[in-house]
Amino acid sequence: MQNAITDVPGVLIGQYERTDEPYLTGTTVIYLPGTAVAGVDVRGGAPGTRETDLLDPVNSNPGVNAIVLTGGSAYGLDAASGVMAWLEERGEGVRVGPDPSEVVPIVPAAVLFDLGRGGSFRARPDADWGRRAISAAAAGPVAEGNVGAGAGARAGRLKGGVGTASVRLANGFTVGALVVVNAVGSAVDETGRMLGERAGIDGEFAGLATPVEGPPEAPPGPLPGMNTVIAVIATDAPLDKVGATRLAMVGHDGLARSVDPIHTLLDGDTVFGLSTAPPEVAKWSVSNLADLVSLETVFAAGARTLARAVVRGMLAAEAVTTPAVTLQSYRSAYPSAVRDHPAG
Asked: What angle do CA 55, 57, 78 make, to 5 degrees?
C-alpha cells in the first residue's frame, strides 16, 4: 500500500506543472485504463467544470476514461482536450462508429483558480499540459504538494497542494482519495492544528503538535478569495452511478471536517466519485437493503480518506515566492508543529 489513490486497482495518476516564472500552475490527470463508473457532486458557489452533467445517474453514459483536475480557472479546461486527443489516438472512449478508431473519450474535468499567481495572468495550462500529464500516468507512489494542479494552490493564508491517501477496508475493498487543496477557508484551526488531523489512521499524524508560532500574515495580492477545492474519491467496490454519486456527496463531509469555511460563494468545490469494479460484477444498489451496510462503509471511508488527503497535501506543500505572491507553507509557518513528524 502506498497510502495513495493508486492503491485502488485501475487508477493511474499523471501530473505536469510549471513553476518557472511567470508560471505557478499545473494539471493532474486521473487515468482509468479500464474505464470507471463515475458520479460527481458540486457544492461550491463558483465552479468550473466540464462533462459533469453526463455523470448524472439519470443520463446514459456508462463510464469515464479519465478525470482532469487543473489550474487555470475556466481557461484550464482546455487541458481536457489534450487528454481526449491522447485517448483517441489509442482508441479509448465510447465507440460511435463502425471503425474501432471512431471513439469519443469521456473526460470530465474541474478547475481551480490560480490565475496570475506566478506573475502572469496568461501563464496557464492548455491542451498540451493535459497530454503531458496523462502521458506520465502511472501506478505506485503519487507526488504530493506543489505538483500538478497543486503547483499554484493556496489554502487561506498558507500554500496548498495535492494530497492523497487510501485505506484497505475489512471487506477487502480499497478506498483512495486525491485532493487539490485550494480553499478560501483554512485547513488550520485557531491553535495552528490541522482540522483534519483526527481522521488520521495508523498514527500517520501522531507526531504533529500544537505550534508555538502565531498565524502568518495574510499574503497580499488581488482577489485573494478566488479559490476552489477539487477532489476524486475512488474505490474498487462495485458501485453503480447512483452509488458513485453518493460517494462524491458524502465525500464533501471530509472537506467540511478539514477546511473551514468550505463551499463558499468564492469556491467551486467539486468531488468526483469513481468505482473501478469490472463491468460484469453485480453492483450494489442504494435501493437494496442488503447492500446498505456495505455502501455506508465505503461512503464513510471515502469522507475520512479525503480529510486525511487534505492534511497530507498541506504537510507536503512548500513555501513559494513569485513576483505576484509570497505564500508560507504549513511547515515553514509552524515549524514547532512538525518537529516530531516526518514532514518536518
From this structure: 10
The count of other CB atoms within 10 Å of the CB of residue 127 is: 17
Please give the Cα distance from 143 to 162 (Å, whole number): 8
pLDDT in tens, 191-202: 999 999 999 999
Give the separation between CA 86 and CA 11, rounded to whole angstroms: 17
Which listed residue (28, 228, 270, 276) is catalytic?
Answer: 228
CA atoms within 13 A on the CB side of 58: 1
Burial tier of 136 (Cβ tally within 10 Å: 0-12, 13-18, 19+): middle
pLDDT in tens, 100-119: 999 999 999 999 999 999 99
What is the sign of the dihedral through the CA atoms of 301, 253, 134 and 321? negative
Predicted pLDDT of residue 217: 83
Active site residue 322: no
Does the pTM exceed 0.90? yes
d(CA 101, CA 178): 31
